[in-house]
Amino acid sequence: MTDIIDPATTTATEPQPGFVPPTFGDSPEGTHVWQRVPYNADHYGPVRDFATDFDHADPNYNRNAPEVWKELRDGGCPVAHSDRYGGMWIPITHDTVNEVAYDTENFTSRAVVVSVGRPGDLSLPAPIGGAPPITSDPPFHNMARRLLLPAFAPKMIEPWEPEIKLLCQRLLDEIGEITPGETIIDAAIQYAQNIPVNVIGRMLGFPEQDEELFRKFVHDVIERIAEEPGTRDGMDDLGTYIFAQIQDHRDNPRDDLTNYLMNVEIEGFPVTDEIAGGMIILLLIAGIDTTWSAIGSSLWHLAQHPEDHQRLLDDPEVMTFALEEFLRAYAPVTMARMVAKDVDFHGCPMKKDDWVLLPFPAANRDPLKFEGPDEFIVDREENRHAAFGLGIHRCLGSNLARLELKVAIEEFIKRFPSFELAGDTRWSVGQIRGPRELPIRILEVAN
Amino acid sequence: MRVHLDSEKCQGHNRCYALAPELFDVDDFGQAVLLVEGDVPEELHTKARLAAANCPEYAIKITENS
Q1: Does A146 sit within 8 Å of B56, measured CB to CB?
Q2: In chain B, residues 10-49 whose CB comes closer than 8 Å to chain A
Q3: Chain A to chain B, count of Cβ pairs less than 8 Å apart?
Q4: Is the backbone of residue A87 left (phi > 0), alpha (psi -120 to 50) or beta?
Q5: CB neighbour list of residue A443: distance below 8 Å, 6 or more residues apart
């Protein structure tokens, strides 16, 4: 179980098959085989009761998530359950989320996106997982994480600020002619979704024209979780694409993250293409719809709260606290674990291979941890939010995400000192929560 | 006042570095490094309390001299 791929048998110079689409079988036990869980979304239909029939892919969930959490808490339900996806538990208090995040013995990270497919014990293989270190458990987790941490440390990320500023200004320019009071823009499609995809693409040294493709990969991996594994073609295309990029970087080495990751060593051995590719998949997938969601949700909030908008314009220093409050109140990321062995968790009989969702956004609105958790307090000074997770899997890209969110908000409100919602917001589906369509009427344009 | 940093608990959220750079630096891995030894100067007490109150992992503790 704790075997690590023997680097001596696979060298970085010979193309690895890697990224084979998961094969599906009857039982995941002791195998590399993925199991198609006996779940058909059509049989279940819309959620009847989130306490016993939870589904984060129900369109009503992300739209109303704060109300769902409040209802569960007020109903005395610290851990919700569902038979969907082959069995799933959902702790919603800060304490229970924290406990699962810290317990890497009973809860494994080898799959972190709940779907109708579950990996076998040896799949990809534990404890590395398909996208290390997010899919890795100790002790491999720390080895992989330490390779990536320096690239995303604050002092490596800070120099990107002017670049991100220029990008945001260019995107705002590209919106074109605006008639205040009339023009409606889509702040998710025309603005938020383009920012992280461009930045991570540039860091990895991937072609800028492929940005649309990256968004498709993200959609297939993160949102199409209830669909048949064979039909999510983006999953296979993603592996093929990454492998082609690795090959291109091998033929034409350059100074970027891809070449850096191809050349790192773990315990003195060069990493295999499979591991380098897995880390690249993580960076590409994890950094895109997450930050895009945070930017979108923040603008969605400001469109409805001109007083917070005005405060940020009058007192730019308040951004230090406002940024964390956006992250707390609109945290986009719910992670997941699998139960590693049967365990009784606060009276819940969790079975091996059950899913456990980790809704950090729900933890962020726990009244036992936060005063007035459902209020947005633009200058909240004490804010121990868990938007970037808790424990050893703290979001690796948090410094980059924060910088992108800050600059994206600052540039948007500077350009448009006044705006309002102009129609229905369409929210994402699944573990990443944020607006996918966000119509906003521009009321004022700065000179 | 004294500040204590538990490096085992620190997961590199970097909230302390953002709020109190006079008291905390970060290393090449983004982990917090405590810059003060002994008593915290009076003018930094507020920042020290702020850093402690915002650490998601409860890695920073403050002890007040009595």
Answers
A1: no
A2: 11-15, 17-19, 26-30
A3: 54
A4: left
A5: A180, A181, A416, A418, A419, A420
Considering CB atoms only, which of A382, A386, A399 is closest to B14?
A399
Whether A154 sits inside 8 A of B55 (CB atoms) is: no
What DSSP letter does each residue of A244-267 carry, written as one string? HHHHHHHHS--SSHHHHHHH-EET
Which pLDDT score is estimated for A129?
A: 66
Question: How many angstroms separate the CA atoms of A247 and A241, rounded?
Answer: 10
Question: ω before A127 within 30° of 0 (cis)?
Answer: yes
Give the relative orientation of helices A194-204 and A161-174 as an angle to the nearest 10 degrees. Answer: 130
User: pLDDT (tens digit, 9 = 90+) per residue, A170-219?
Assistant: 999 999 999 999 999 999 999 999 999 999 999 999 999 999 899 888 88
The string of DSSP letters for A198-210 reads: HHHHHHHT--GGG
pLDDT band, very low/low/confident/very high, at A37 (cuts 50, 70, 90): confident
Chain-chain contact of B13 with A398 (C-beta, under 8 angstroms): yes
CA A378 – CA A141 distance, rounded (Å): 36
Contact B30 A324 (CB under 8 A): no
The reported pTM is 0.92
Give the domain ranges of chain B: 2-63
pLDDT, tens digit, 9 for 90 and up, residues B6-57: 999 999 999 999 999 999 999 999 999 999 999 999 999 999 999 999 999 9
d(CA B30, CA A167): 26
For the record, the structure tokens of A368 come out as 């036992």
Rg (CA), chain B: 11
By Cβ distance, the residue of A150, A385, A388 closest to B28 is: A150
Cβ distance of B55 and A392 shorter than 8 Å:
no
Q: Which residue of A has its CA nearest to B53?
A: A382
Whole-angstrom CA distances from A314 to A308, A318, A324, A332 are 10, 9, 18, 27
Looking at domain B2-63, which CATH architecture does it have? Answer: 2-Layer Sandwich (3.30)
* CATH number among 1.10.630.10, 1.10.1370.30, 2.60.40.10, 1.25.60.10, domain A7-444: 1.10.630.10
B55 and chain A in contact, CB less than 8 A = yes
Amino acid at A127: P
